[in-house]
Amino acid sequence: MTAEFAGGQVAIEVLYLIASVLFILSLKWMSSPTTARHGIWAGEIGMLLAVCGTLLHHGIVDYKLIGIALVLGSIIGVPLGKVAMTAVPQRTALSHAFGALCVTMVGSAEFYLRSPNISPFMMSVLSVEVILGGLTVTGSLMAAGKLQEILPQRPLTYKGQNFVNFALLACAVVIAVHLILHPEAQSLFPFMILIALAFGVLLIIPIGGADMPTVISLLNAYAGLSAAAMGFVLDSKLLIIAGALDGSSGLILSIIMSKAMNRSFTNVLFGAFGQVQTSAAAGEEARTVRSATPEEAAVILSGANRVIVVPGYGMAVAQAQHKVRELYDALSKRGVDVRFAIHPVAGRMPGHMNVLLAEANIPYDRLVEMDEINGDFPQTDVALVIGANDVTNPAARTDASSPIYGMPILDVDKAHTVMVIKRSMNPGFAGIDNPLYYLDNTLMLFGDAKAFVGNIVRELGGGHG
Amino acid sequence: MNASSNLIDALFIFVLAGFIGFEVIRRVSPLLHTPLMSLTNALDAIAVVGAIVLVGEHKSTRAAVFGFIAVVAATSNIVGGFLITDRMLKMFKSSRPAKPADKSVGQ
After folding, report:
1. What is the pTM of this model?
2. Which of A15, A235, A464, B25 is deepest in the core (most CB within 10 A)?
3. Does B8 touch chain A (CB under 8 A)?
């Protein structure tokens, strides 16, 4: 090894070290919206340094092919960076798939380059890398398909589903163990990948839309962990660090999401939510609901001092966030204090509602987390629920037989008046009846969220047209 | 340096980075969980460095082809991830009067 050669390696490692520090700073600056954009600069500079450092790598002979790949990736990446904000959940799922695809491809290539000279430890991490990577590729594609509504959003369940899934995973692990002992058995490797890919599909089939926030977070964690495993295989400290950061981020989000649903990971992944509830909803005597027109709703809202809006996935589906912004303006102009209560699992991914409302230009200091705002509902004149259901269901507090019993909810029922914009009395996504709708202080506003809010705004004399 | 000390070093780095990740990300405001996810996604695409070496070294056709696919996938995550994170963060505005001078560069 010549001195010059070693010097080049040191320079590359120093660039990687700087990139690692920038990545950590990037995440640190995400702690607040005021510094978050610095975080992007830090991340971008870190990335640039790392890629440039890698291009200095001594063994690289073919720059043309790298260039083509980089350009092609950018061509695909730009439209993915410009999707509508409502499509962010499926875009995120798709990018988990791309990240995992990269890891799986690199892992496979390394296997064929090194086999049969692979130490047991190396083969173990390599197996972790490609199995986690493979199942994340197809799992994320399935999740993206469900979110884009190319695939049915209802959970699909069948008898023995969990047995089939575990058996498949066990097969993959058996092959991995065999390869660890006999790394020369190249013909087995594709089967391990295929099983991981199939497992990813089957894992997401029983997942319903309401569980997507947890599942996307979990897939995020898998993508990160598989990248960290790749770092072990390639002996790249930068990759280990980036993978560990991404993995812990996904894990933290998964924990927050599953806590907000009062469920464990295993319950989310293997519980198939949609199948147990029918008994809870059926068999009740016909209860009456009170409904109101946009005019009546406008009168009540304009007479209020404090209003809390509770947005949910229904608001995203109806694309009502801009009308909600007009309502916010019209009421604020009249001196009404309007805030937004954000449940952690409202929508289809962590933070989904915040992004939609920020897109509609609602100031972020009006968006309040569940724990902070829950104590304020008793002093609130009107709680306006737009397209949210289970996260407002008081049965979660009171009814031990309810499938969502114990789940933390927004205490909208404690407000003086509750108004719920809803298409019809059909139960929500998880099929659970919501006693909120039958309370004496609840008014149902039947209709499309966007149209209904628009009508209220018109009654208030605001909005456009 | 032998393989096992390399391995131990790598494990140390993994565990410590995991701890840093936990402590840093625990402090991220729930307001920003969506951009956080797209940012970590972009950062995770640093896996592109491994793929670039595979393509560039061209040790076998298979390795180069796999590496090529990997570079394309990771690059699209880098470009798309940073772009959309930036777009999202630009939207978050406070109701307090914004500082007139936005010192952001470029774009």
Report:
1. 0.89
2. B25
3. no
